[in-house]
Specification:
By secondary structure, this protein is of the alpha/beta class. It has 2 domains: about 25-130, Beta-Lactamase (2-Layer Sandwich), CATH 3.30.450; about 140-385, Rossmann fold. It contains 14 helices and 13 strands. The strands form 2 sheets. Strands 9-8-10-11-7-12-13 form a 7-stranded mixed sheet, sandwiched between helices. The chain has a 6-stranded antiparallel sheet with strand order 3-2-1-6-5-4. Helix 8 crosses helix 10 (about 285-295). The radius of gyration is 22 Å and the shape is globular.
Length: about 375
């Protein structure tokens, strides 16, 4: 089977016209820029395979020759540096951001993952590059609901964006950052800690707004370290790319308690499941204290999933609930073991459930019945996973 044309016979595949007989470092940027300009969403570089681009949801080979070990070594050095192979051999995968500037001063950014794999019974490498927009989208472009926008920017406290991998959490956060930067009063001093930095705000202009971005693993060692660093820099807003462990969760809660607006992502599905997951990372001896600190700090939880859209593409479906004063007081008056059930009851009353959002999309003929039913089961499945 020919790697170039058989994946989509209905539409001829355009091959990279500048394909060299042997890759040198300058060819890597040329290839990436050409792929991005062809409308590629993801580029896949894998040992002993042609270069594959994902265009309109289909993988298409765009080189006639496979990437051999020498080519891959050149690509790794260009994208990461000479130490890439040693780190991969140590069992690490590598996440980073990469930027190409073309001769016409075009700026193209990529999110990159580099992972060691087995191919043809020997060690090999796969590099996946996601093409990133040049600037963050707006809430309007993403179709963010008015109730989410209304509660997005509390003076202090914790805002959590949740969902599975690839659900657009980072994009949603970036759009929220843009909204705060561009608002009439600006955002003040915003510090972001990300791994890697995906969206940049160089072209987003706002009054009284100063944005500083740090990459975890490059500028600072961990997200928890990033939050501690932020508290020494007198910020207005702190963005923690991911709350993934006890130390980071505790630091984010503490920052929210000390007068900062803190934004982070969590790999959970559903408002109630998120609260339960945030509590579960703490040891039993400290769980009660941490749980009540979390509840005092919470201001908004948004869960987002992406599903296939009728006619092509994907569309976001969201569940959310603001944690206003009366909601927090109600929950704080209960035992924490009762929170999950009560939050499930509160979501449809004070926010919007995933099933309601799915019903709206289905009624508008934006999603099909199968995906509507799957969305209605999503939050229940998320809760069961935590049991």
């Amino acid at each position: 089977m020919d790697a170039g044309g058989s994946l989509n016979d209905a539409k001829p595949v355009v091959m990279w016209p500048a394909e060299p007989p042997r890759f040198r470092e300058e060819h890597v940027d040329m290839l990436l820029a050409w792929c991005a300009n062809e409308g590629t969403s993801d580029i896949n570089l894998q040992t002993d395979r042609p270069v594959f681009c994902e265009i309109d949801g289909l993988l298409r080979g765009v080189t006639r020759r496979v990437v051999d070990a020498a080519d891959m070594d050149t690509m790794l050095r260009r994208l990461y540096g000479a130490e890439a192979l040693a780190k991969l051999a140590g069992g690490r995968d590598l996440d980073l951001a990469y930027e190409v500037r073309t001769e016409t001063n075009q700026r193209i950014r990529f999110r990159v993952n580099i992972t060691a794999i087995l191919a043809k019974a020997r060690d090999a490498v796969q590099i996946t590059l996601r093409v990133l927009p040049n600037e963050p989208p707006t809430f309007e472009k993403l179709g963010i609901e008015g109730d989410i926008i209304k509660h997005w920017a509390p003076r202090q406290g914790l805002v959590l964006i949740t969902g599975p991998t690839g659900s657009g959490k980072t994009t949603l956060l970036a759009a929220g950052n843009r909204m705060m930067i561009e608002r009439p009063g600006g955002c003040g001093k915003m510090l972001t800690y990300e791994a890697p930095i995906e969206f940049v705000y160089d072209t987003i202009i706002g009054p009284n707004s100063l944005v500083s971005q740090s990459e975890i693993g490059k500028h600072l060692e961990s997200f928890a370290h990033g939050v501690r660093n932020a508290l020494r820099r007198k910020p207005t807003i702190i963005l923690v790319g991911e709350s993934r462990d006890r130390e980071t969760d505790a630091a984010a809660i503490e920052a929210g308690q000390t007068g900062h607006a803190v934004y982070s992502t969590v790999h959970t599905t559903g408002v109630a499941a998120t609260v339960r997951r945030m509590m579960s990372v703490f040891e039993p001896a400290e769980r009660t204290e941490r749980a009540y600190a979390l509840m005092e700090t919470l201001r908004l939880i948004v869960t987002q999933v992406l599903v296939p859209k009728v006619g092509g593409g994907r569309i976001a479906c969201r569940e959310w609930m603001p944690f206003e004063d009366d909601t927090r007081e109600r929950l704080l008056s209960q035992k924490q073991d009762d929170w999950t059930v009560d939050i499930q009851r509160l979501v449809p009353e004070r926010g919007q459930s995933m099933s309601t959002s799915a019903q709206i999309l289905f009624d508008q003929n934006l999603i099909d019945r199968r995906h509507y039913l799957l969305l209605c089961q999503t939050v229940e499945a998320g809760l069961q996973e935590g049991d």
